[in-house]
Every structure is written in C-alpha cells, then in structure tokens.
Design a protein that fits this description.
about 40% helix, 18 helices, 17 strands, 8-stranded mixed β-sheet, alpha/beta, UDP-N-acetylmuramoyl-L-alanine:D-glutamate ligase, about 425 residues, 6-stranded mixed β-sheet
Length: about 425
C-alpha cells in the first residue's frame, strides 16, 4: 500500500496544477467536474454553502466566514487555495486539516474511475473537498473560488450566499484584459435569487455586477457603498455611509490595513446571513478576533520573529503590493530602520506593472522559489535594477532569507513577499 506522501507525489505529478505550471493546467468548462461529482454521487448537493470569489482577499473573507459559523457552534468546512506548506491546508473542518487517511482513502477508491477524464489538480481537489465535507456532515461549507468564477470547478454549487470581494487586473490571459471582462467572469458565481455581497465598488465592475444580479433576480449588497470604516489602533468602527452613524465596533488583531476591507466585506456578508438564517446571536466580533485560531489562516502579514522584526505576506499582485509597500513603514521601530525585502515572483506576472510600487529605499534579496513556474532571479533582478532598485540575487529562498538576516540589525525589518511559493518555503522552515 502506498504511503500518504507517495500518493501525494503521484497526485502532483499526474494532475496538472495551475499554481505550479500556470495556464497549462487551466481547464475551461464544468463538464469534467460535473462528471467527477456524478461518480461520487453529487456530494455538493448535500452542502449548505457560501461561495467566495474575487481578485484579492477571498481567502481571508472565506476564513472570516468560516470563523463566524464556528463561533455560532456549527461544524464548518473550509475549502481554500493554494496551500502554503501542506496540501491538506486546502480542506479543513473547524480549522482541522483533512487527515492523511481521508486523502489516501479517496484516491485509492476513486483514482481509476477518474483516470479517463484526465482531470486537473484543482478539479480533483474540489471533488475531494465536496466529498469529504458531505461524508463528515458539515453544517456549512465556505467555498473559495480557485480562478475566475463562471468556469471555475467550484461553480457547481447553489449557495446560500455569494460574495465577490473585489476586482483588479490579474490572470488576464484567461479571464480578460479589462476590469469589466474579469468582473463578468467573477459574476458567474451569481445564482438565481441568491443574495450576493460585493466587497468593493469599482466604476467598471459595478455595472457588470448590477446587470448580472438583475438578470438572476439576485439581491445585491455592496459592502463599501453601504458602510465605511475607521481604524483606531486596532478598534475598527463601522459607519452607515448614508447616515454617518456608527453601527458596529470590533477589535481587529490584523496590523495590515488591507484586512479592514476584508472585514467590511465579511461584516456585510454576516448581516445578510443573519437575515437568511434567522441568526439571533451576534458573533461577528468574535469571528474576527479568533479567525486565525479558528481557521489556521497563514501568510497574511504574519510575524515570524522579532529583532529583527520579520514578516511575510502572500500578496503578489498590483493591489496587494500597493498596500504592503505602504503598510511596512508602520512596522519600522525607528526612522533609521532599514527594510530588507526577500522577493520572488512567478514568471507569468506583469512585473513591469508592479515595479513602480517597489520602494527604492528598500534593499531587495531576489530569489527563485523551487517550482517550475517561478521567475528566474537574474531576469527579475535585471528588471528591478533597471527601475533603480538595490538588489542582489540568490538561487533559493532560504539563501535570500539567510542573507537578509545576516545584513539586518535588530532595529531593521525583514519582509518576505511577492509569491505564495516564496512565503510557503519560508513557513515550511519555521
């Protein structure tokens, strides 16, 4: 009998994985996943779900929602991607990862039945998640979209609530080269008469959402049109945007201000769920406060050590890096502190679009993650130097981290970012 690690290695080898090889692994259409689920007896039909799409923040919002259901006392499944260290991070119940035995049992039972379909890695992982949640009889399942929405493998569910966090330009080769085109793909998760929460207003995406929601007779709740927030040293005040009255205050343990937007999206979603499910208990503040403990979410402005203060963040696109390049100043102990950035990207990112965001006063340690899709560190550094950035190159993430630690004083900051895989390699060593 194969061990868990042997099975896992075979899975990674046999099924094309988008986050490893890029668009070559992307399968457009739902026919494969529908056939996979037919073989399993359509477990997704047994689940009460919330479906979460968006360019950024969907992992965090999914985790806030899972934490919310957990705080209410419900057995809650959470399906997210990608994983950072362990494949099993993708599939959790009340924060606990799927067991190695459950993964083994699934592939031993169904792999031959699936083989003729030549499924992608994400298709078969989605099928595993739905099957596991149904077998374990979860009360609710929070399902994060993998890529896009309309043609994503997760888009075979009819949820209680759909959530779209925001839209920015990413994966343009597959989803479209304008905000409106990408919004149309994300809007594909909107279902007939199912309420939808829109996290952020954008003049190009909002009309698309309005049009699709109208066609589906789906009530639409735009979070940052209805509410606004003010963060006072970790106390997040939420105001009604029309009346300017304070409607809620909660404590947020998250130092990165981008989480304020995600919390607002979650807040709007929770208020809708209170109505749909007739929830009487107020567990919104507890869900935010205890989210990381409840769900195990990692890699979001995560502090790894002090002296020097060392953080990592999976932000890897324009919108994420714009926030992090500003937020990092708040981590500096003094005006004389230097920021050392361990930085690597994947090869299909638009680096020219991102370069202007990178601060010239920072010191960059450019590296390549140990995956096929990673951008060559010398190619990346050449572009960065041409943009006036101070950088040196390293053939591995760990060598870049070691160099940053050797150069940094106790009063400096080390920031590890640019790719989920760079962060994942660092977390695997901690």
């Amino acid at each position: 009998m194969e061990s868990y690690h042997e099975i896992l290695n075979r899975i990674f080898t046999a099924y094309p994985m988008y986050h490893k090889v890029g668009s070559a692994a992307y399968k457009e259409g739902l026919e494969n996943i529908e056939t996979l689920l037919d073989i399993l007896g359509n477990p997704q039909r047994q689940l009460r779900c919330v479906h979460v799409a968006g360019t950024n923040g969907k992992g965090s919002v999914s985790s806030f929602l899972s934490s919310y259901f957990q705080e209410l006392g419900y057995k809650t499944g959470l399906f997210t991607s990608p994983h950072l260290v362990d494949f099993r991070e993708r599939i959790r119940i009340n924060g606990e990862m799927i067991s190695e035995k459950a993964v083994l049992d699934f592939f031993e039972q169904y792999q031959e039945k699936f083989q003729h379909l030549e499924p992608s890695f994400f298709e078969i992982t989605t099928a595993l998640a739905f099957n596991y949640f149904a077998e374990q009889k979860v009360d609710f399942a929070v399902i994060e979209v993998g890529l896009g929405g309309r043609l994503d493998s997760t888009n075979v569910i009819t949820p209680l609530l759909s959530v779209i966090t925001n839209i920015s330009l990413e994966h343009t080769q597959m989803l479209g080269d304008t905000i409106a085109k990408i919004a149309y793909e994300k809007a594909g998760i909107i279902k007939d008469k199912v309420p939808v929460v829109i996290g952020e207003y954008h003049p190009e995406s909002f009309p698309v959402f309005e049009d699709v929601a109208l066609k589906h007779d789906a009530p639409m709740f735009p979070a940052n049109v209805n509410y606004e927030t003010i963060n006072n040293d970790g106390m997040l005040d939420i105001y009604n945007k029309e009346t300017h009255e304070k409607v809620y205050t909660l404590y947020t343990p998250f130092k990165a201000h981008y989480q304020d937007k995600n919390i607002l999206t979650f807040f709007q979603a929770a208020k809708v769920l209170e109505f749909i499910l007739n929830i009487q208990e107020d567990k919104i503040a507890d869900a935010v406060k205890n989210m990381q403990q409840n769900t195990g979410l990692a890699g979001r402005w995560q502090v790894l050590s002090e002296k020097p203060r060392t953080l990592c963040d999976v932000g890897h696109n324009y919108a994420c890096l714009k926030h992090s390049m500003s937020n990092i100043y708040e981590e500096m102990p003094s005006a004389d502190s230097k920021v050392h950035v361990v930085f690597g990207m994947v090869s299909d990112k638009d680096i020219d679009h991102i370069l202007p965001l990178l601060r010239k006063e920072f010191i960059y340690y450019v590296c390549r993650a140990h995956i096929e899709r990673a951008m060559d560190q010398e190619k990346l550094a050449t572009k960065m130097r041409a943009a006036g950035l101070n950088c040196t190159t390293y053939p591995s993430v760990q060598e870049a981290v070691d160099a940053a630690k050797a150069a940094a004083s106790d009063e400096d900051v080390i920031f590890i970012t640019g790719s989920c895989f760079v962060v994942g390699e660092v977390l695997s060593e901690n």
